[in-house]
Structure formats: C-alpha cells, structure tokens
TrEMBL record, chains A, B, C:
Molecular function via GO: ammonium channel activity
Similarity remark: Belongs to the ammonium transporter (TC 2.A.49) family. Rh subfamily.
PANTHER family recorded: AMMONIUM TRANSPORTER (PTHR11730), AMMONIUM TRANSPORTER RH TYPE C (PTHR11730:SF30)
GO CC entries: plasma membrane
Organism of this sequence: Echeneis naucrates
Role, per record: Functions as an ammonia transporter. May play a role in the elimination of ammonia in the gill.
Lineage: Eukaryota, Metazoa, Chordata, Craniata, Vertebrata
Residue stretches making up the Ammonium transporter AmtB-like domain: 58-435
Name of the molecule in the record: Rh family, C glycoprotein a
Keyword Cytoplasm in annotation: no
Coarse class of the protein's main subcellular location: membrane
Bilayer topology term: Multi-pass membrane protein
Length: 468, 468, 468
C-alpha cells in the first residue's frame, strides 16, 4: 500500500516514543513554573505589593489562550477536513503534530527568549502556552501545503524543524531586530506559509494526477471545513491580541482584527461570485480567503491603524487572497511545479508578507500626537537600548523582519524538503494520496456512505439501463 | 436557473463592493477608538486614578463578547444547516450578512447612542462590538424565516434595513422609554422575529410546494444543526449578561439564563414526545424549542427574578415554543399564507414578546427589600431625569417597549418585503428553493453522497429488476 | 418496536414534567442568589472594602465555567455521536440528562456543602454552576457505558441516582476526608466510570449481537465525534482549574493539564499504530485515549507535580488507556459479561483511579521548600481542624478517597442497575439497540444517504448484473 519507500519505513510509534521521552527528559532538566504559577505566588504577591489575585497574568490572558487553543486544534484541524476521504488525516494529524510541537516549542522558545542565566531554567506561565501554540501554527500552516501527500512521520519531522526554525527567526526578528509582531504576520504566517511551500516544491510529484479522484470535497466535508473556518474567523481577534500589552494593547488589537475580518468576507464573496459566469460562489474561497484579513493584521493590529485602516486592510487582502485561489495557485502548480493542497500561499504566505509590510508602514507613520508620548514608547517598546529608535527606523526594521521570516521559510523549507526525500518515511504512493485508508482503519464495507468507485460504477450501470 | 426576475439581476459583487467601500468612507469620517482602546489609555488611567489595567472594560466583557460572537456565526449559522441541500447557504449567507451587518451596526448604533456632539465622532470599544453583534442578530433571525427562498442580494437588503430599523427601535426603547433589555427579548428577538415574518408574509410563494423535496433534513444535516443549537444554548448566559452592569449584574444574568435554559430542555422533550403516538422525539423541536428559555429571559435575566422564577420561565416557554412548532407554524402557513422555514415565530418572535412582558412584570414587582435601595437604582438605572420613576411606571414602559419592538418588526418587515418584490434581486424560482446549487458551486458528480434524484431513480431501477 | 417491557412503559413526558415541577418547587424553597450575584452586592462591596467589581468571583471563574459547559454539552455530546445510527441519541439524550442533572446537582450539592443553617437556604454563584456541571459529568460518563442500550427514561433514572450518589461521595471525600480533588479524578471520573460499568454489568444483554450491524461508525460520524474529542481535549485545562484557588492555583492546574494532554496524544498514536500489523491508526483510540492525561491529572493538577511530572502522567495514561481499548474492553465483555459501548473503563474509570493514586503520591511527597510554608497550607487547605495534618497523612486520605469513590460507583451502580431491570422503562429490544429510530423521528425515505440494507442490496444487484 505504501509507496516511494525503498528502505524500510521508519515507524511512527518509534518516533512518537523516542521524541516524547526526550521531551520528558528535557522538561525535567529545564522547565519550571514561573512566579505566577508557582505555589510561592502568595509570597511573591506580598513582596511585590500585589493586592489581588486578579493581577495574576492568568486572568489577563487565559480567555485569549483558550481561543487560540481552539484555533490551533479545531480551527486548523477542521479547515483541513474538506477533502472527501482525508478528513481523518486532516484533523487527526493536525492533532498529533500540534501536541508534539507545543512541547518542543516550550523548550525552543524558552532557550531563546526566557532562559534564566542564573539558574539555567525556563520558567513558564500562561503567556508561554500561548507562544507555544503560536509556534506550532507555523508548522500547521506548512501542513496545509502538504495535506494528503506526506506520512505522519514526515509531518513530525516537518514540525521538529519547523518549531526549531521558528524559534530562531523569532529571536532574530523580535529580539535582535526589535520588531513588533504580536499576531505573527511575519513570524507565523509568512514564515509558515513559505516553509510549507518550499517543502512542497522539493517534494513535487509529477504523477499526482493519479490521485485526482480524491483531491476534492463532498457536500458534508465542505460543511465540516466551515467549522474550522468559523472558529478561526471568530477567534482571530484573540489570536492577534493574546500577547499584546495589557489594557489598551489587547483591546485595540481585538477591535482592529474584528474589523479587518469583516471586511475580508465581503470582498471574498464579491470576487468569488465575479469569477464564475454563473455568479455562483465557491466554497474554497469562503473557507479560506475570508480569513486573510486576520493574517494581514497580525503585525499592525496593536498599532493605531485606525478602524477604517483595518477595514481597508481586510478589503484588499480579501481580494488578493481570492485572486490567489483563482489564478496564482493554478499558475504555481503549472509553471513552478508547486502543489499546494490548501492554498496556503493565498491564505498565509502572501497575506502574511503583506501584513509585515503593512506593519512597517503603520509603524513608520506613527506620531506622538496619535499615540501620546508614553503610548508610543509602550506600543513600540522603545526602552533600554532602543530608547532612541525613531519610528522611521522602526518601520525599516519591521520590513527587514518580514524578509527574514520569508528567507527562513524558503531556505529552511528547501532543506527540510530534501531531508524528507530520503526514502525512509513511508510516504504514500502517487495513486494513494489524499486517502485516509493508507494510514487509518476506515470502516467502509457496512458504510451507508459507500465508497466512490462503487457508486460511480453504479451510475454507469444506470446509464446502461437507460440505453436499453 | 434563477427565476422571478424580469429585470436584469442586481449583482452580488456590485452590492458587496459598493457597500464595503461605503463602510470604509463612513468609518473614516466617524469611527475612532474609545479611551480604553486608544494608546492614550496610559494617560487616561493616570488622570482617572485607575490603578490597574485589569480595570479596562476589555477584561470585564471580552470573554462574553467572544461567546456572543460564536453564537452569531457558529450558533445561528449551523442552526440553519439542517436542510439537506442548503447547508452552504445556511452557514455561508449567515456569515456574509453578519460580517456586513456588524459594520453597519457600529455606525447606526454609534449615531443613535454614542455620537460625541463635540467632535462628531463615534468612539468604540469592546461593548460596541457586542452591541454590533446583537444588532446583527435581529437580521439573522429574520433570515431564519426566509431560509432557502431568497437570494444573497436580498439578504443584504434585509440586513441593511434590519440594522437600521434595529438602531431606531433600540433608541426609542432603551433611551426614550428608558427600558432595560440587556439580553434583547424585545429589541432583538421580538423585533427580529416579527421583522422576518412580515417579510416572509409579503414574499409568500403559492407554489413553494414545488421545492418540497428539498425542504427537509437528512441524518447528518440534523447533526450539523445540533452544533448550532448547542453553542447557542451553552453561550446564552453570556449573551444575556454581556452588557449588563459589572459585578452582580453580569453574575445574576448568567445564572438566571442558565437555569431557564435547563428547564426549557425538559419541557421541550416532554411535549415533543407527547405529540407523537409513538412517543418519538422530533429533532426540529430539540434543535429549536430548547432555546426558548434563553430568549424569554432576555429582559428579566438581570433582574432579581429568583432562581425558581427562571425555572418557571423556561418551563413555560419550552412548552409554548414546542406547541408553536406543532400547531402554530402549520396554522400560519395554511391560513395566513406565512412560510417560516426555521419557525422563527416559535423560537424568537413569540418567546421574545413573552420575555418583554415577563420583564415588565418582574420590573413592576421590584422592591427595595429585595434589591436594596442602591441595587434598585443600579439595576433600573433610576438616575438623572429618571430618578423619580417608580417600579410600576417602569413596568408599564417595559410593556410599551415590547409593543414598539413588535410594531417596528411588522411594519418595517412589510415595507422591506415590498422592496424585495421588485424583480431585480435574483431570487430563486419556486422549484429551486432550498437548493444550494442556485448560488453555490456544488461538486456532485464524483460525490459519494450522490444527489437525491439519482438515488431515487436508482432505487426505481432496483425495483424494476426485482419485478423482472 | 420497543422490547423488554412486560408492564406498560413509564412515559418520558410524565417523568420530565414531574421532575421539572419538583425542581421548581425545591428551588423555590431552597435556592437563592449568593452575595456576589445578588443586587445587594453594592452594599456588600462597601462593607467588605472591595474596591472593584472585578473582584467579583464571576471574573475569576466565568471563562472557565463556559469552557466546562462546552465540555459537558458539546464535548460529551459529540464524543457519543460516533455510532452510525445513534448520533441523535448520543448528543440529544446527553443534552436532556445534563439539563436535568445540573438542576438536581445544585440542590444536592447545596444541601451537602453550602446549606446555611441560619436561613435554611442554599446560596448559589458561578462556582455552584461549575460544580453542578461537574456533578452531571459523573452521570454522562455512565451514559457512555450504556450508549444505545437504554431508554431516555432509564437515563433520567441513572442521572437522578448518579447525582445523588455523587453529592454523598463528594461530601465524604472532600469534606469528611478533607481530600483535594479539584478536577475530579476521584469524585467525577473514577466514580462515574465504575457507576456506569456496574449498571451495564447488571443490564448485560446476552443477545446484543443482534444489533451488531449498528454498533460501529461511518466515516462522517467519526468526524463528528472528533468535535467532541477536541473540545474536551482543548478545554480540559479549564476543567481541572475551574474551581482551584485563585491565582497560582488556577494558573498551575491549567499548565499541568495542558502538558499531560499533549503527552497522551503521542503515546496514544504510538500504541494505536503498533497494535495493527499495517501500522494504521484507529479512530476509536484517537477519539478517546488522547484524553486520558486530562482525567489522570484531575487530582494532581493543582499540586506542584512539576511540568515534567505532568508529561510523565500523560505518557503513561495514554499507553494504558489505548491498551484498555485493545485488550481490556474485549476481555471484560467476553469474561465478565460487561458491555461498555464507549469504553468508559479505559477513558474514565481506570485513568480516574490512577489519577486518585497519583494525587495521593504527589500530596505525600509535598515539602515546604517546594510549596513554601504558606503555599503548602493554601494548596492542601491545612486550616481549622486540619491545621496539623501532615502531608503523609494527607496522601493516605487521598488514597482512601479514591477507594471511596470506586466503592460508591460499584455499589451504587449495581443497585441502580437492578432498579433499571424492572420492566417499566421502555428499553430497546436486543435487535434495536444503537438505533435512533426507536426514540427519534428519523427522516430516511427521501434521504440521500439511504439506509444500509438498501445500498447493500443495491450492490448485490450490481454484482448480479456483472454476472449476467
């Protein structure tokens, strides 16, 4: 059943066991509770004159964390159930790699961002959990480009390297370049999108048409995918505001994202309808391009982009993303040999890149009259060695950060793609792509929804009878 | 494919583009961040002696906002997926009109309720977003009566006028009459329900029976609809408490709604089972009437209605709503020529009206011993020019407010219905109602769940063979 | 259609009406708002020098409450939609019994835990709602063992007694033995699991194989079940932290549960894949055993178990639970005559018991250096008459508490099972189990997903034609 493997396939159980045991050991060595989740909190509170438990960061961020968590597991997971016979793989492998990725992310992000040099430990709290979920998102986006064409072991490898690359580029962009990117237009979407595309490009399958019968949706699989779409769409304001500053920062990021997303929906519908002579809408566009506004607001959401600025961002990215599904994806497949199952180029890579540049422009245009002197310092964190950075310089660094994210995605993805071409991963044969039966026990024989070939044959029979 | 159009159909893309551009311009002129979402917050805090960011309204209301958001998009959307071949339209058009409606609502509600006369601007924060979602709900309820019988352009018109009418009636009821209606029994449910019914009555289709084959559910579409039902049911306590007073107001509204909803479930099940000789339950009742308790508590939830009072409200409305599905909807269709696809009369219009009157009675019965002197002032906002209003008077105004909401719904709906009869909207022909194929690309040919006519024919063939 | 009834069946409507009326009367006598949800809050605040409404417990717990609420209704409900023709019963009866159970739980838990002796009243707030949802969970777990084999009236009886037994065992374990069990490994999962298993054992059906054709999933019912799985999995950190101490208690419980669950996913996938020669994954394992880490952390989540300790717990329970599905469930059915539809033994009973003992060990190992002196007192509530209890003693009591929970489940379940054998409950015949048509109006004739026998016959016909 499996194809493309000339060496014995590396076994999924072995990978899961070894990596999970490694996680346990590394957590034992490095990870501890931070002061707000440790039982010493009662002493910490007294020492820092904190008068109420409600000041614990848990109450600022936990509702947003849970919304992000839903986006990662139900949002991304169900968005990928749209294929007629790959719903198990879509939601199930997403579950597997996110559950692994968030553990590895806590370590990688901890080492790069919050390792205490005195103790050699990483101290985690609710913000770490949000960041770990964010870090996984990069690899889940990459999965979107690979959906149906890779084995679960390959996905584990994609995630291992994806999380690693993410932590490094995030360190360069947020710490060294001192960019702001609360919702991750650059570090999550542009990186994750180009990472997945580069892997897919290296893994190009010239004979993928042999699985064409399964590369499509059925009526109810499209409805399942709408569960993913809607939970992503609804909770994106939480995504973009989850780790912004307490107070106005979280508040403003949520409002801006809410508005950009609303605007995306209308332009997506407009372009989708225009693209067909009959004026009919295409579910692929509604499921995906409606989300582009949230991606594109990932950097600028915490800035004073203004409510109408947010609407304009959503307006443009809804159009661009839908055009992407109509023209760019077919173009990339035909001329660049790039097979992108979910069209992550149109939903993540391109809007993420745009979001990075939008953030650069909005940052460069910031003024003290709009932000107030203190507000400007707070929003852009112009403190310490960055106290004298001007907004123009900040804009330049934001643009540079976007380029770093794309470069990490493309180069990292190409390398990981080459690793995945080693024939030990148990990837599916060209005529078995998009098929859950390769990796899942699927109970078909007594299924009321009988399998496609039979029904097709069945219809044949009917036509023959009509001819009689 | 389209019917009922003698003039060229107004195009959906044109409507989406023109309206979204109008939104951008109007937002540019009118909408700004309020003091809690503006970067000046740090100054505002100091000036007002606010000691902690946690006092930002974001932390009081954002979790409730997100629950309401889920109700609007997943709750209403999936509740309308129950039709066998209109699930795309149910969830997809709900998505479109809510995304448009919330933008228009921010403007309309802003003009009526929070336009700053000094600056001519509307300042928005998280409470504005909740109110915008609420305002959309009126039009989404109306969609329930029209489901499957109107074009997306017509729905955009329904929403444009629905949001406008909502803002006006809300201004009259909440501001001029000084009613309390935190969960919107009157302003949302009674208005929205009668608005949709009046439109449907004007758009009566005598030959709708030609689409009868599609006006029903299949097994899995009923399960999809339960996603909508449950998210509405679970989050209704957040709906009714989202904009009530901080502290005990939000707390009490959530408890009362939780109890009323629980009680509705038991009486819905009881009546549904009694209505069949076999004692079997009907999914239509479970999907809808279980929610009636939440609708009917929309006004009284923030009052001291007592926990057992809440149970009684749920008890009665569960019964009334289920009876509505059994007897009133067929009666309205047969004798009043009123086609109500989702039975919004039983779920929204009638329980909403009852909720308005329950609120009036509970308000009139309020006493200082139950509320405390200060509590009475807080709950009913007896301040400023209303400082001397007694609870009896308040009860009278609450009842009057309910009548205003109904009148706005009926008259407004009739007028909008007449507008929608102009033959330029591209509405479906009588034999194409409840059919996604009119407005959506539906991939059927290689679908394992092949379309009904084929299977029916298929079965025919089988029977013929048996005869051979 | 119904079988096993020699006396006239007790009617569902009668049970619903009588019990709901009883609830209203008992609520009228006993249940009142507590000081944080009463309109007197404004006075209470002043008297207790509470400076801000944000100190109202509503803002500490309401987001967690809503997550728990989703787990109870969507989580448990959709997890039980996996059967091909019992999805209505799975999600619908879960809805019914949870809505009844939470009302009865508010009363029972109130009488045992918070009856004010001065006034004879029970005062409820948001924490009461969470506890009521928890209390229902015990009976919903029991339903998992009985799924498809009992009538709704029987389920109401299971819930009536289940909630009652829960309140008693909870009183013994939490109040008399002074155990800590915030996430309910003992009081919810071990009790609920063994309660359901004991009932199922008494109700053993030797001829259940007559319904074998319906005891399985189809492709899309497995996807529906993943909705339940994921919402349970994502929100389990809220479940285990919902009623822990404000501040570090809630924070730490969420982190520990998040980690244990992630670890469970990897070992579940590993064992599931190992168990098949083909290395394929089984949806039953992914839907269930991935959750075992959350169950097993129910007691220890609020303790200083350390992040890597949480990973180890998830690691082990993922393995044990998956083994349970592979070997223990078939063993129990074959040798102990125990039919466990959803395998609650592997997901709740066994991991719950383990969780109780893990909690005992972690408690016994607690030290002042890890918890701080004050932290130790806070976490284990060593106050009042328990001020001098040592951690070793506490560990012993935790272990004893686990045994009490199991004993209550087994004995209580056996008694309730005997009650359910009285032939007045209208339970389904052996050849009608797992079939929604017994209790629900199912619209099949014009269904595009036609019923299995027809399609099977259909395929026959095709084969005959090929032979022709």
């Amino acid at each position: 059943m499996l194809g493309g493997t000339s060496l014995p396939a590396l076994s999924l159980p072995a990978v899961c066991f070894v990596w999970q045991i490694a996680m346990i050991i590394l957590f034992g060595v490095f990870i501890r509770y931070d002061e707000e989740s440790d039982a010493h909190w009662v002493e910490f509170k007294r020492e820092h004159n904190i008068t109420s438990d409600i000041e614990n960061d848990f109450y600022f961020r936990y509702p947003s964390f849970q919304d992000v968590h839903v986006m990662i597991f139900v949002g991304f997971g169900f968005l990928m159930t749209f294929l007629k016979r790959y719903s198990f793989g879509g939601v199930g492998f997403n579950f597997l790699i996110a559950a692994f990725g968030l553990q590895w992310a806590l370590l990688m992000q901890g080492w790069f961002h919050s390792l205490d040099p005195a103790t050699g430990k990483i101290y985690i709290g609710v913000e770490s959990l949000i960041n770990a979920d964010f870090c996984c998102a990069g690899s889940l986006i990459a999965y979107g480009a690979l959906l149906g064409k890779v084995s679960p072991v390959q996905l584990m490898v994609v995630t291992l390297f994806g999380v690693t690359l993410f932590a490094v580029e995030e360190y360069i962009i947020l710490t060294l370049l001192h960019c702001r990117d609360a919702g991750g237009s650059m570090v999550i979407h542009a990186f994750g999108g180009y990472y997945g595309l580069a892997i897919s490009w290296v893994l190009y399958r010239p004979n993928l048409h042999q699985s064409k019968r399964l590369n499509g949706s059925v009526y109810h699989s499209d409805v399942f995918a709408m569960i993913g779409t809607l939970f992503l769409w609804m909770f994106w304001p939480s995504f973009n505001s989850a780790i912004t500053d307490h107070g106005d920062g979280q508040h403003r990021a949520a409002i801006n994202t809410y508005l950009a997303l609303a605007s995306s929906v209308l332009t997506t519908v407009a372009i989708s309808s225009m693209s067909q002579k009959t004026g009919k809408l295409d579910m692929v566009h509604i499921q995906n391009a409606t989300l582009a506004g949230g991606v594109a607001m990932g950097t600028a959401a915490e800035f004073m982009i203004t409510p109408y600025g947010s609407l304009i961002v959503g307006f443009c990215t809804g159009i661009i993303s839908t055009f992407g599904y109509l023209y760019i994806t077919p173009f990339l497949e035909k001329y660049l040999k790039l097979q992108d199952t979910c069209g992550v180029h149109n939903l993540h890579a391109l809007p993420g890149m745009l979001g990075g540049f939008i953030g650069a422009i909005v940052a460069a245009a910031a003024t003290e009259s709009v932000y107030s002197a203190e507000g400007l310092i707070n929003v852009f964190d112009f403190e310490g060695s960055f106290a004298n950075r001007g907004v123009g310089t900040q804009g330049g660094f934001q643009a540079a950060g976007t380029c770093v994210a794309i470069a990490f995605g493309l180069v990292g993805g190409a390398i990981v793609g080459l690793i995945l071409r080693i024939p030990i991963w148990g990837d599916p044969a060209d005529d078995n792509c998009y098929d859950d039966e390769v990796y899942w026990e699927v109970r078909v024989p007594e299924d009321e929804e009988s399998i496609p070939p039979v029904l097709e044959y069945n219809n044949h029979m009917i036509h023959k009878h009509q001819d009689m």
